[in-house]
Specification:
The chain is α+β, with helices and mostly antiparallel strands. 34% of the residues lie in helices and 23% in strands. Strand 7 and strand 8 (217-218) form a beta hairpin. The longest helix is centred in the middle third of the chain and has 25 residues, at 133-157.
Length: 415
Amino acid sequence: MKTALSDGGESATSFIKEWDENIMDFKNLDTAFQENFIENEITAASPFEVTLPQQTIEKIYQFIRIYFAICHRNSYQMERGKTFFHQQLNYSVLMGYDFHITENKIKLIEVNTNAGGALFSLLDEYRRYPEKKREYEKKINVLFESFCEDFTLWNKGNSSQRTLKTVAIIDEDIEKVYWLPEFKLFQSLFEERGIKTIIADVKDVQIDGNELKVKGIVIDMVYNRYCDFYLKDTPSSTLREAYEENLACFSPNPFEYHLTASKDILMFLSDETFDEQFEITSEERTLLDEIIPKTYHLSSLEEHEIIDKRKQFFFKPISHYGGKGVYRGDKISLRKIHEIEKENYLMQELVHPSTVTVNSSIADIPLKNNIFKVDYRFFVYKNEAFHFSSRLYQGQVTNFKTIGGGYAPVIVSEE
């Protein structure tokens, strides 16, 4: 697909101007989020910065390339295809690799195929650092081009000559979605490039003959932000049919989720007994062991092993998201361990988040304290990260309710 200026020139600049003038009716991006979600006391942008060494970032880049390569080897796909298979030849736009980093030790938290916050973070940083305007314009263009490439790959897989004219951004209970303001930013980005974009509830999709439609408009590409990753729940039935019949490009799509982001993947990749089957080299194993937390399927362990190991692990369901159904091993009761459906749960090594102490004087906001937990999100298409940011929070899990928390820029140091 042809797009304006592949190097991120006038087209990206034009979009940012439109975003400033038309999308933002408030003083700044954080204020806009506050106005949309004031009743939830949510904040999306932190006024602070964090720092990461260049060598740490380079190691994460290396890990992402290895992880992607393993997940797309024939031997690995054959194994994963035993439990789910319907392949479209495209990948997943805007994947998120989340990490905890403590004392230069890197640990993967999880991989997401529909990570939120990329465009928000890029535009927030664009506003903060006008001297880096060109850098952010290029990143925004890379983001846009990833959608175009994914659609081109899907076209190729279907021997199709369709043109990308329409995109549907899909989620459930759309008016209540936290990232709805970001959906509107994507809508502005796509429509500025000539692609009609509809933000819609999963219930709004319909199949008409061999076409997927939303509100009567034929859809070429579904940017799926709905967290039914396999499209197996009742509200997703129409989407599932459209996916299986290849009526539109889905990004992310269920098979790519199954290959790269299903939580049980870490069970395979943290277990060296699969190395021969998945053609994992000794160099790859060294890096996997360093970064992937040890993960077990509960059904593979005897109950006494679970009880003996539990304090250094936490328990999480394979299919849930957003911290639902998660238990820390040092706090879970023996009764709850007995109750857990072991076929549906993993036991994963407990990795404590890093912390950062901020200079509260640079922000005119009332902080509870100036120590924040922090995790790091790398936004990726295929095997290349095009942007990274951090998320500051206080409390037990990552959240956007902490005063002074939210996405924070990462400053790269040479140390």
